[in-house]
Design goal:
Elements lengths: L1 H21 L24 H24 L14 H8 L10 H24 L15 E9 L2 E9 L1
Antiparallel strand pairs: 1-2
Helix pairs in contact: 2-4, 3-4
């Protein structure tokens, strides 16, 4: 047990020295060399977030628009409106006048479509405000597993940047 603690302490010291050596000493006067500065053509939205938003919004809107086109209900014509359409259709359905044989299923599907459209639109819009990494998207990601200890126990610790 004593040897394992020494091994963990040595691994921790090695990690601290590695981080200190790669952090440029945390000198506030440090500026990036020209090779590390992003080229001028790399501005714009975060591409992965933009793609995730569009691929979430588009199919959910297309599905509700198809249902709105095929339905005979007046409330379902609201499904042509993106984002608010599923919520308005859900609120204006009158199952007393026009019976709803699968009301729970339909309500869940309309609510799910509304949530997906909202999340897709939010991710698409947020991609324009989320800064693109100056070093490229792939360089920001890292993952490591190292020996570590907590109290009297010994184990592994995981650390990642995504």
């Amino acid at each position: 047990m004593y040897t394992m603690r020494r091994l963990c302490a040595a691994a921790t010291l090695v990690e601290i020295r590695r981080v200190a050596a790669t952090s440029h000493g945390k000198d506030p006067s440090y500026s990036r060399p020209p090779s590390e500065v992003s080229p001028p053509g790399r501005k714009g939205p975060s591409l992965p977030m933009f793609i995730a938003g569009v691929t979430t919004l588009t199919p959910s809107y297309a599905a509700t628009a198809i249902v709105g086109a095929q339905s005979n209900r007046d409330a379902d014509k609201w499904l042509f409106a993106p984002l608010a359409g599923p919520w308005i259709a859900l609120a204006t359905r009158d199952c007393k006048v026009d019976p709803c044989p699968n009301r729970l299923r339909d309500d869940l599907l309309l609510g799910g479509a509304g949530v997906l459209q909202g999340l897709g639109a939010a991710a698409t819009i947020a991609s324009f405000f989320w800064p693109r990494s100056p070093h490229g998207e792939a360089e920001r990601r890292s993952f490591s597993i190292r020996p570590g200890g907590v109290g009297r126990g010994v184990g592994l610790s995981a650390r990642g940047t995504f």
